[in-house]
Design brief:
The protein has 17 helices and 15 strands. The chain has about 475 residues and is an alpha/beta fold. A seven-stranded mixed sheet has the order 2-1-3-4-5-6-7, with helices on both faces. Helix 13 (about 370-385) links the parallel strand 14 and strand 15. Helix 1 packs across helix 7, helix 9 packs parallel to helix 10 (about 305-315) and helix 16 packs antiparallel against helix 17 (about 465-480). It is globular.
Length: about 475
Amino acid sequence: MEEIRLCKIKRNIAFVNVTPEIKNQINSRRRHPRHYLPPIDIGYSAALLESKDYKCSLLDTTLASFSYLEIMNSADLLLADIIVLRPNENAYDLTIKLANDLRDRIGSEVFLFVIGPVASMSVDYFMFPETPFDLCLIGEPEYGLVEALELLERGRHLRGIRGTAYVCDGKLRIEGKREAIVDLDSLPLPKHDFFLDKGYLFFYPVKGMIKKKVGFMLASRGCPHKCLFCSPIGRVSYGKTYRRRSVGNILKEICFLIDSGVNLIYFLDDIFNCDELFVEELCYQITKNNLRIRWAAQCRIDKITPKLLRLMRKSGCVCLNMGIESGSKRILKMFDKDMDLDEVLKKVCYCKSIGICTVGNFILGMVGELEQDREKTMEFIIKAKFNLVEVLFFNPYPGSRAFKKYGNNKDVDMYSRYEIVCGENRVMRKSTIKRFRSGIYRKFYISLRFIFNDGLNYIFSIALNGKNERVLFKKIVRYIMS
């Protein structure tokens, strides 16, 4: 029988958001520039735990270029009795290495948990016979963490918690499925102290001279669409079931952020406009209550009416991030993405006419993609005249339907939307696909239209917003020109 590990819980919980940006651990390959967004699930978990008198800290390796030794010597980790690691893409093995080294350093009295989309979609990758982890929380972690800590305080085994996995007698045990949180208003507001003024960047276009102080929010969870490539690893929330907070609850958080000096909010929802009536009511209430705030969101642009776009703009919407994926109808059909490209083009143009900036996201390298499909994508990008474009690569993440067709567990630590890993059944060479993306970037960004319409706006933004944006801008320029 497995012994119960007893310890006096000091109620100190340390969260670590593990990314491949740890100094001296970064893969030497040329990396696609990106802005890093906060781990909002940690913010919610910490707020819930602190409402029960736990003390929480966050070490996010994306922000300060920590060395591995600095992380190991972090006072927050050394003083904690529960350490919760949240791996990101390309950080599977790094997270396991960190957990093993922490276990060797601090011994068995400290409990190690692993949470987040990566761990949830690859439980057996982290929970193996000699795993350093005591518990893996699958799916939304907030209430599972509370249950686990309450069991420890009572000197009980970490057993019987739905939506968790552990290793017992060398075998993986999974305690059923935890239902998604239906009443999102039951959660406290996330711990924004973890995120405000900490270096998280919003680099999407915002017109006008503004020194940005950005806050990040989640108004809803879940996405009902069925795109082939979609996985929680590439999203902020879990599940197909769409759930949203009440308008009043969201307004409360907006007011809190405004009082904290925030002048720009980015809604991290997978699809902000799943419920059109909800968005209408939220926009109406923001305007009615005279909440002077700029905001941005990710949306299905083909599902938004001009009337709703006008309401959104009136309430402060300045930018919409749109997952369009391809300019080829054939590829969209393969993605199971029911999208009318002609309608998309009209909506993008309408957004710009009323002052909403547009960001277009596209995917290259789908299995079976032909050169003419890529050409159609480039033509669409140039024709739509987005304010910013990001081109990613198709990879079959665990948790997606694509993984069942094209994925394999031995490659999961290499899967990245910024690098091509899955090479089977591709018509074109990986190097050809990468060169095509470089060609799209050069044609889009090194154009007089972009330079004079948007490039100058970025330069002004960098001048106002300091070092972090300047560093990211330099990375972007080097990447495009290389």
